[in-house]
Amino acid sequence: MTTTSTPAPPRIALHRDRLLPAEPATRGIARELYAAVRDLPIVSPHGHVPAQWLADDVPFPDPTALLITPDHYLTRLLHARGVPLADLGVGVADPTSAQSRAAFRLLCRHWPVFRGTPVKLWLEQVLVEVLGVDLVPSDDTADDLYDAIAERVADRGFRPRALYDRFGIDVLATTDDPCDDLAHHAALRDDPGWHGRVVPTFRPDRYLEAGLPGWADRVDALGEAAGVDTGSLAGWVDAMERRRAHFAEHGAVSADHGHRDAVMAPLDAAEGERLYARARAGHATPAEAETLRRGLLFEMARMSADDGLVMTLHPGVSRDHHAPSRERLGTDIGADIPVAAEFTEALRPVLHAFGTHPRFRLVVFTIDETTFSRELAPLAGFYPSLYVGAPWWFLDAPDAMDRYRAAVTETAGFAKTSGFVDDTRAYLSIPARHDASRRADAAYLARLVADHRLTLDEAHETARDLVTTIPREAFRL
Amino acid sequence: MTTTSTPAPPRIALHRDRLLPAEPATRGIARELYAAVRDLPIVSPHGHVPAQWLADDVPFPDPTALLITPDHYLTRLLHARGVPLADLGVGVADPTSAQSRAAFRLLCRHWPVFRGTPVKLWLEQVLVEVLGVDLVPSDDTADDLYDAIAERVADRGFRPRALYDRFGIDVLATTDDPCDDLAHHAALRDDPGWHGRVVPTFRPDRYLEAGLPGWADRVDALGEAAGVDTGSLAGWVDAMERRRAHFAEHGAVSADHGHRDAVMAPLDAAEGERLYARARAGHATPAEAETLRRGLLFEMARMSADDGLVMTLHPGVSRDHHAPSRERLGTDIGADIPVAAEFTEALRPVLHAFGTHPRFRLVVFTIDETTFSRELAPLAGFYPSLYVGAPWWFLDAPDAMDRYRAAVTETAGFAKTSGFVDDTRAYLSIPARHDASRRADAAYLARLVADHRLTLDEAHETARDLVTTIPREAFRL
Amino acid sequence: MTTTSTPAPPRIALHRDRLLPAEPATRGIARELYAAVRDLPIVSPHGHVPAQWLADDVPFPDPTALLITPDHYLTRLLHARGVPLADLGVGVADPTSAQSRAAFRLLCRHWPVFRGTPVKLWLEQVLVEVLGVDLVPSDDTADDLYDAIAERVADRGFRPRALYDRFGIDVLATTDDPCDDLAHHAALRDDPGWHGRVVPTFRPDRYLEAGLPGWADRVDALGEAAGVDTGSLAGWVDAMERRRAHFAEHGAVSADHGHRDAVMAPLDAAEGERLYARARAGHATPAEAETLRRGLLFEMARMSADDGLVMTLHPGVSRDHHAPSRERLGTDIGADIPVAAEFTEALRPVLHAFGTHPRFRLVVFTIDETTFSRELAPLAGFYPSLYVGAPWWFLDAPDAMDRYRAAVTETAGFAKTSGFVDDTRAYLSIPARHDASRRADAAYLARLVADHRLTLDEAHETARDLVTTIPREAFRL
Predict the structure, then answer these.
(1) A189: which of A303, B181, C27, C476 is 20 to 30 A away, CA to CA?
(2) Touching check for B155 and chain A: CB below 8 Å?
(3) Which residue on chain A is closest to C11 by alpha carbon?
(4) Is pLDDT of B167 > 80?
(5) Is B370–A367 a contact, with Cβ atoms under 8 angstroms apart?
(6) Last residue of a domain, one of B134, B158, B182
(7) B17 vs C345: CB contact, 8 Å cut-off?
(8) What's the pLDDT at A331?
(9) In the predicted model, is pLDDT for residue B3 greater than 60?
């Protein structure tokens, strides 16, 4: 179709120094620090890739279902520019191939929307390094890109297990419902052809929120899964402990919690049973449901101190902010919006109880950056049990990462941070996300070397720790 | 008076690279980006210049009344150093020429007070580029400066219309009371000798605040202006709709709102009428007045969705913080102090109702920087209707602008921001303010190019968009 | 013990350009600015060195008691890595020499914990410049370091008075209880061999907190010290005024206040007496105790306006966050954790009353960085009485200092800031702390020169002001 008069379409050029500081001497230091960690194995202690993909080594679907529809980082920005989510496949049960191609064209047409966002960085790196295509997305290139990607992912070398090796993943955590039988994890464990490490993560949020519809049924199901009667709070606790043990037997190292706030406040046994009974009967007021949830979360902390599963906390989000979209399209569509967070008072009771407990470990993530220097770094700089989680979600981006290190390090150093967490459903983007984090940390450390706060040797050790010992310690891996 | 032994007084040297990054390669990129947008026309979609100045092409007054007395950015800092506001002409009905000269001397004497603030940048640029004087203000130079400026502004070439052309203004928005007949705007429209564009902005705050003295009288006046009975809430709504239509006929593109908080919460009709009646009768409690205001603001949003006037929101300010000064000197004297802002919950009802409405557009400004990354960028990154306003007021300064871009861009990109808003009464400073914004954006974009997040071509397109398509889209110009 | 095959242990190399910007031209400017202020005398208007050290010129104790045990900046980070505080001597009445040496070894073993924190910078400078040892702390060097330091501090040249001269201290403020007779200050004043200036600071927190155990007894003691009956609020006020006068006679220039929040709210006389009486009788509810405290703090502001003692405020901290540690080890062990702060509304009544009062001066410190640009800089940019305190405690670190200047300067300039405050118990670290501040300010100013916001002359003047006229003005020294 091309003629001699058509200019060549622009190509993505991944610069080897991307995200490194512009000042030449500092860049030289950063380049050296980054080079030393670039190829170290990936430790991914928190994410959302389904274990089944690896257990069954399922082929990836069409380019839209692979790269667009499930990635709310991407669909939200297109929606913000007026693209209906359904046109991107969100909430569409079985999109036709024409629909998928049309959705891919929308992404390409709106490509400039992603300028300055990490989505551009991740997707460029996925296209070039994982998929081997380097056309800049646009109306002109959409179909060529679509076809090239479709062809590439049809190849056996692009199945999940092959990519697991190619990506250099050392350990990958999934996120799982307490009732999950973890059959895929068991299958992987028992598969002589599999030599990777995929560990489940216990995610019990829905069983703590008595204010949400269907809670009582879910708690019944929990009891069934655990083989105990969850008719009482004592039964709920027993069921949770059993399911946590089931997860631990299947390799779990952490339990993840994401509620509106970070408050954990113990209930005395009688009051707990009373609230639990009212909630079971559907009579709990919103305030009672909240009190119960905070009491149950305290119980989860207590269990973490007992069984050693690292407790991770992701609070401070107003979920499903746009009710009409939730009703039409469901949850996890990019309409969760952060709210201000508070930790100093919220965590006081749990830190009173377990803050110096040798088996308790609490990793706190936030999107409220104001808490990094004000609350989380001071807390992590005193309590041996508390770690400041890596910049999460909207903050998983180069400038935000720099602000995170600048806000946390002077008060808590490096050792009380969590190491990078990709938190992603987008399997293909895992290397790009970890790479961006390694570059950002190299950039930050280079700055400390350049103004003589660290020696180069100290920075080298720290850069290495940040991708090796530090995430392994924080997540007990 | 000078002798051979007096050293020459220091001169202001406006460096062509001011506000551009120091690192040479990054500066080179920034210089190129800035050069490409430096001379593009000024779009000023929100400000406080009176339309009458242009309608009547009124000559400017003496240097103090021109540059000092009405500019609370400047008087507040002198007041903070102990200069009584009255000595600067604030609240003085008819200052003598001796008083004006004395006030100008105070500015010059305290010139070092402005170091590090944007007032210094703006005023230096006004002196050199607009007024053609370059003496550094000081005790020694005060009188010479005063005389030189007085002479300059007496020239016909310094009338508002001549400056409008010289400044390259494409469109200038004023801010107007709903009862204003907009005669000056009409006069400009009908003036065959005028080829500029001056549009009114609907600013109804005072008609929503039933807790402020005189509210009932103002609402009566509103009814009179609209030709309807505002004795009921339905009448108030009708009157507002008519006045908005009047503004739209005169070219208005937006309605501006500045209350203590951003909450908009619909009232059902009966409850609304009940509260309105109590407020009319002077019986509303402060809590009722607040509930009513939040309901009325929701109504304004609903009207914006109907008539397409862009809704702009400037919440989060404690007005007239120092009551004794307000009593002596009135409002708008630099004693408005920001408070913490909240948007995620405050805007939920209005975004539920109109967040994806094709005619609704909401531009949110804040002085609480914490909300940029935590709330506003996430909201703008999902809702097609919502735009993040440029850094406003105290944040209209180089470092704050950089923090704004760094906080917003990674989550919401560039396209969901508002473009620059000068928000000023200081007509002469309009070019300097827009220039500072263009420099700051060039500096930010250059940084993204220097660390290979954007190509130079992408940065050029974005720099141009930021002063052309983006403000025009956000404000429907 | 060393043999030819052992590599030489690494040495601390203090780089002359540490903390200065990496970009060469900017560094050149910063180097010049720093050089011009490096050796200016130290003004330390707020700190915690005991006056007795200087009055009696007491020899320093062993290295652990000198450098580790009393310094909670340091012990908290070791505790956060699992070192029991008692192993560092905290709460240990009379540690053996073996215990002290073991504690010192723990510091050395965990030396990498301090990477990226100011503790590393301070301690490296103390070791090299004050103590003349330059071994990098580690397991291998711990004993050599311990012995070298012990030997050094046994020397007469390391007594407090000799160091006062060597450090170039011009004035040093202590922090003292209102009941303190200030005998050590008097002794210094009357000592013909002493030519320094050590001033007390009035710190009455414990007498305002009726909610804390022992309050009534403390108030009795206050009455005794003042020679008045504190059985009534009027008596309490009288006693405070007398003790403040006693402090002023002994050279005090400020009164320091640190409560949970910054609220000051006047009580009418009858209500005040009623609450005071209830509190004296032990019947005040927590809410009443809080109301009383806020009323008493307002009284302290009123006294400051009367007697001219500068009021300094350090609010926003949750003290003794970990109750079990407090019970075992006492207070001031590094377990105080910041909370969000609010100033705009909290300070409104006191600024209404005294905001433009010529004798009232209020310096506000915070660890909640969000208030710098949102509240404190706007307040200081209007009220002549209000100054923004230097970055305090966790924020006394290079990156935080840069954020502070960037957040405050554009709105309030330099003249309404307090100058550096070391706030330290660690006498040996005073020069290192002031040096870091001077370097950070030089770095910030150099950036303004490099992008042409300030001329080099303006920056020189400002750099000098920041360590001379500005702290002297803020603290009336």
Answers:
(1) A303
(2) no
(3) A455
(4) yes
(5) no
(6) B158
(7) no
(8) 86
(9) no
**Chain A residues with beta carbon closer than 8 angstroms to that of B345:** 318, 339
Average per-residue pLDDT in chain A?
96
Residues C149 and C186 in one domain: no
Contact A303, A319 (CB under 8 A): no
Q: Does B25 touch chain C (CB under 8 A)?
A: no
CATH assignment of the domain containing B255: 3.20.20.140
Side chain identity at A298, as an amino acid letter?
F
Answer whether residue C396 is part of any domain.
yes
The reported pLDDT for the residue numbered A1 is 44
CA distance A77 to B409: 11
By the 8 A CB rule, do A68 and A107 touch? yes
Q: CA C460, CA C438: separation in Å to the nearest integer?
A: 12
| SS3 state at C464 | helix
Which residues of chain C lie closer than 8 angstroms to B370, CB-CB? Answer: 370, 374
Interface residue C409 vs chain B (CB under 8 A): yes
Residue A5 lies in a domain: no
Instruction: List chain C residues with pLDDT less than 50.
Output: 1-2
Residue B6 has pLDDT above 80, yes or no: no
Contacts of residue B65, defined as CB under 8 A and 6 or more positions apart, other chains included, come to: B89, B95, B100
Interchain proximity B348–A321, CB inside 8 Å: yes
Per CB-CB distance under 8 Å, the chain A contacts of C338 are 344, 374-375, 378
Q: Which residues of B touch C21 (CB under 8 A)?
A: 22
Structure tokens at A235: 């039964």
Q: CB of C448 within 8 Å of any CB in chain B?
A: yes
Give the pLDDT confidence of A97-145 residue by residue, as tens digits. Answer: 999 999 999 999 999 999 999 999 999 999 999 999 999 999 999 999 9
Number of domains within chain A: 2
Return all residues near C152 (Cβ < 8 A) that are at least 6 apart: C131, C132, C133, C158
Q: What is the pLDDT of residue C206?
A: 97
Question: A-chain residues within 8 Å CB-CB of C21?
Answer: 451
The Cα–Cα gap between B256 and B271 comes to: 26
Reference B334, options C372, C412, C366; nearest CA is C412
User: Does residue A348 belong to the interface with chain C, where contact is any CB pair within 8 Å?
Assistant: yes
The region of weakest confidence among A451-455, B151-155, C237-241 is B151-155
CATH of the domain at B63: 1.10.2020.10
Question: Pick from C104, C123, C158: which residue ends a domain?
Answer: C158
Same-domain status, B113 and B177: no
SS3 assignment, position C345: coil
Partner chains of B (3+ C-beta pairs under 8 Å): A, C
Element (H, E) at A173: strand A169-173
Give the CA distances from residue C359 to residues C240, C250, C419, in Å, rounded to whole numbers and listed in that order: 18, 19, 19
CB of A344 within 8 Å of a chain C CB? The answer is yes
Q: Structure tokens of A428?
A: 């293909």
A363, β-bridge pairs: A312, A387
Nearest chain B Cα to C461, which residue? B112
Contact criterion met (CB < 8 Å) for A335 and B410: no
Decide: helix, strand or coil at residue C282.
Answer: coil
Same domain, A192 and A140: no
A414 and A461 inside one domain:
yes
- Find the domain containing C73 and state its range: 59-158
- Whether residue A164 sits in one domain with residue A152: no
This model of the complex carries an ipTM of: 0.97
A362 and A408 both lie in a single domain: yes
The reply to whether A29 falls in a domain is no
Question: Looking at the complex, does the CB of residue A28 fall below 8 Å from at least one CB of chain B?
Answer: no
Q: Which of C23, C116, C339 sits opposite A410 (nearest CB)?
A: C116
**Do A250 and A135 fall within a single domain?**
no
| Edge-to-edge strand ranges of the sheet holding B169-173 | B42-44, B169-173, B198-199
Q: Given this model, what pLDDT does residue B334 score?
A: 87
- pLDDT-derived band at A196 (thresholds 50, 70, 90) equals very high
- Please tell me whether residues A208 and A84 are part of one structural domain: no
